[in-house]
Amino acid sequence: MSKFELVYFPFNGLALASKLMLSLGGANRKLSIPDWPTENPINPYGKHPELIETKQDGYELILNERRDIEEYLAGKLGFLPKNRKQLYQCSDYVNEIFQYGEFFGRLDVDIKTGYDLEAEKKLLEKGVNTKEEIIAYKKELEKLQFFRYFLADTTRFLCSQEKHLSQSISGYYIGDTATYADIAICSIYSEIKSHGLSYIFDIAKYPHVKKLIEILEPNSAVGAVIKTQTFALN
Q1: Is residue 230 part of a domain?
Q2: Number of domains the chain is built from
Q3: How many beta carbons lie within 10 A of that of residue 112, not counting itself?
């Protein structure tokens, strides 16, 4: 049986989906914190998360790309459909979720911690005179307008996921067990909540999305990862 080591910082971030798969899949795993930035020069790609799989014969497989890690674990731990058509459907759902997550990742940190959209109106009413004030004004306005675009994209995204999930009897995207797609949306929802922005990801308006989250979140393997930011104990 393989042993997995996931190297990442002491928060969920980009490693959350991988941590959830390892926990839900009952893998023999441990979480390590990198000695950053000391080890950066010896890391093949200079970034994390990093997955190290040690097989029974001692062979090590090392992956450093987030999506590669997630896709590998999904296949290894049984979170990909075996049916070819369903496999492509799952991949399509994951890509859509990932693109939305990338959009969220581009939000300014200040906005993620709670930005009042009324500030945009106030900013427009504010007078600017010096070159420095104009530059600062443009930067603030761009951040606020980007957040507005993100809100609109969130509505589009949730409507799309609601449509996908409305075709499911079990509540999962595909079949009657969790797949990579289910874990992916649970991850992005958790990440958005951690920034205090659950109000923009208003699942109450989307009953099928809400149903899926309510299926996954009470799972002890999911809850332990999200709440403690470490792996669930075996």
Answers
A1: no
A2: 2
A3: 17
